[in-house]
Specification:
Largest sheet of chain B: 7 strands, mixed
Strand content of chain A: 15-25%
Helix content of chain B: 25-40%
Radius of gyration of chain A: 17 Å
Mean pLDDT of chain B: 95
Number of strands of chain B: 18
Number of helices of chain A: 5
Shape of chain B: globular
Structural class of chain B: alpha/beta
Distance between the termini of chain B: 14 Å
Radius of gyration of chain B: 20 Å
Oligomer: heterodimer
Low-confidence stretches of chain B: none
Helix content of chain A: 25-40%
Strand content of chain B: 15-25%
Order of helices and strands of chain A: HHHHEEEEH
Low-confidence stretches of chain A: 1-20, 22-28, 58-125
Chain lengths: ~160, ~400
């Protein structure tokens, strides 16, 4: 594993998430407000991952080698989704586990719901991973990814149409 | 279209730029009818907010007519007249669901920048630096509004723009500042800053039950306006012993709540403010927090300090010992504008409040660059400038 400087948790986060009990190095989770069924459908559609990858900084596709496995168990509408990744997998791999968790406090349900594997092949993965998570979360929650690309500014030369 | 563009420190230019287009299916394009220059725009004008880029379109107090909507838009339609909140909420994330729109998770495409500075990013803002998303602002003939279903208030036909324009920012900002004071009947509220947000905070504090409001500033015309709507006033050019004056005026107890409606460019005659000013000029400091220091010092024991004034960086000589020793409560932050727009519109329609009293100038966009200059230098005459597009 190369240089992960931020979003990392080096030691076990003593908590009730079973998967973190098993492996103390999960970190960088993201939460969404969607019902689990929406998240399930989202991850079944690989075009969503392609949209998340669009417009990421130049070269990010060289950092990411993303594969998606099928979801087995997702919670009910009472649950939302949390990603965790593990720097302890084989060198160069970062994995986002998708788990269902209660919306407000309480214990995390034990079923592992989904697994997305992402491999970084260069340094700087934490920022890229952060961007990736944010965009995935935004697309899942809102159906779009916020952008200003293509908006007007005084930087561009104006041409009368 | 014509737009007011930030070209560098104290340099705003009207430029001809391309019209905005729909970029996401929940966007709308608005033909602007009125847009105001905010006191917080002067922080941009003076170059104290980082991550501005030459050519950025300014403006975050905007209203207008819906010209085009994206395919996912449900709540507004072409032809509606809407007021646009300055902060951009997605409407779906945890924070938006809790009506904390200004801390939206999803609307800032540059969220990783403030995360490095602040730990987490707030929402995207219109026309307010790339740290807050780099969104083109509304001091222009047209504006693109993302997540328009969340970021709009459709206003009734026939109502004058001047009455509702300030639902975009300063009225909700003043109201939230007062609400954050947890005002009880009989309370005394002190407000630093008699600019437009301060004036809205005065009105709001009275609406929420304050018995007395005391305002601190040094621009006499603004203090006169504050007095005209019921406030007592202190001109710190005449006497800068603010804590002592407030202690005297409150029978030795201090104000129940203090509102800092000044933010990071405080003026004043204290030694600390002189040090802040020098440090800011030579880039050894970011903010001049003297109003906030005074508010903390003056507030009564177990009182509340509410901060609608904008801060951006690190505060020097911050009297946290006083805050701890007096058990103060702090409430602050960018306004969750969308939370307040509809109830405040009802108050406007009921005649409880008419925020248009703060307007001092109505101008064309061509006069915008000069208005920025005058607003920055001549606060006696320039209180609130509104650009008119019709």
């Amino acid at each position: 594993m190369e240089n992960i400087e931020t979003n990392t948790r080096r030691e076990s986060p003593k908590n009730s998430i079973p998967i973190l009990e098993a492996d103390p190095n999960y970190y960088a989770s993201a939460s969404v407000t969607n019902p689990a069924s929406d998240a399930f459908a989202f991850f079944q559609d690989s075009s969503n991952i392609s949209r998340v990858l669009e417009d990421l900084p130049k070269g990010i596709k060289n950092f990411l080698d993303l594969s998606l496995t099928s979801a087995e168990e997702l919670g009910s509408d009472e649950y939302k989704i949390v990603w965790h990744n593990s720097p302890k997998l084989s060198a160069g791999d970062i994995t986002f586990f998708i788990k269902a968790s209660p919306l407000r406090g309480g214990s995390i349900i034990s079923s592992q719901a989904n697994l997305v594997g992402i491999k970084f092949k260069d340094d700087g993965p934490s920022t890229l991973m952060n961007l990736f998570i944010k965009r995935m979360k935004a697309l899942l929650e809102t159906g779009v990814i916020a952008t200003t690309k293509g908006q007007p500014s005084g930087r561009e030369e104006y041409h009368q149409h | 279209m014509k737009a007011l563009c930030w070209e560098g420190k104290q340099n705003v230019v009207m430029k001809q730029v391309h019209d905005p287009t729909i970029l996401n299916p929940n966007d709308a394009i608005i033909k602007v009818t009125s847009a105001a220059i905010c006191g917080s725009d002067l922080h941009l004008y003076n170059g104290v907010i980082p991550t501005m880029e030459k050519g950025d379109i300014l403006g975050h107090e905007t209203m207008g007519i819906v010209m085009e909507v994206g395919s996912l838009v449900k709540n507004v339609k072409v032809g509606d007249k809407i007021v646009i909140p300055f902060d951009i909420g997605c409407g779906h994330c945890h924070h938006c669901e809790e009506t904390n729109y200004s801390t939206c998770d999803n609307s800032n495409p540059n969220a990783i920048i403030p995360e490095k500075l602040y730990g987490y990013s707030g929402a995207g803002l219109f026309g307010y630096s790339h740290m807050y998303g780099g969104y083109a602002g509304g001091q222009a003939e047209f504006i693109r509004v993302p997540y328009v279903d969340t970021n709009s208030l459709v206003v009734p036909e026939g109502i004058d723009d001047d009455k509702v324009l300030f639902l975009s920012d300063i009225l909700p900002t003043g109201y939230m500042a007062a609400e954050n004071c947890n005002i009880k009947p009989g309370d005394v509220v002190a407000i630093w800053g008699a600019g437009p947000v301060g004036q809205m905070a005065i009105k709001s504090a009275f609406l929420l039950g304050a018995e007395r409001v005391i305002v601190i500033d040094h621009v006499q015309s603004r203090l006169d306006l504050a007095r005209s709507i019921g406030a007592e006033v202190i001109n710190f050019d005449e006497d800068d012993a603010i804590t002592e004056q407030l202690r005297f005026l409150t029978g030795g107890r201090g104000p129940d709540a203090c509102i800092d409606a000044v933010g990071l460019e405080a003026h004043g005659h204290t030694v600390l403010n002189a040090i802040d000013t020098v440090k800011q000029k030579i880039k050894l400091g970011t903010d001049r927090p003297d109003a906030l220091r005074q508010a903390i010092q003056a507030c009564k024991k177990s009182g509340t300090v509410s901060v609608p004034g904008v801060y951006g960086g690190f505060l020097d000589k911050f009297p946290f010992g006083a805050a701890f020793g007096k058990a103060l409560t702090f409430k602050m932050g960018q306004t969750h504008t969308q939370r307040y727009m509809k109830p405040l519109l009802e108050k406007i329609m009921n005649g409880d409040i008419d925020p248009s009293f703060v307007i001092s100038h109505r101008i064309r966009i061509e006069d915008g660059p000069e208005a920025y200059k005058q607003f920055n230098e001549n606060k006696t005459d320039y209180r609130k400038v509104v650009l008119k597009f019709q």
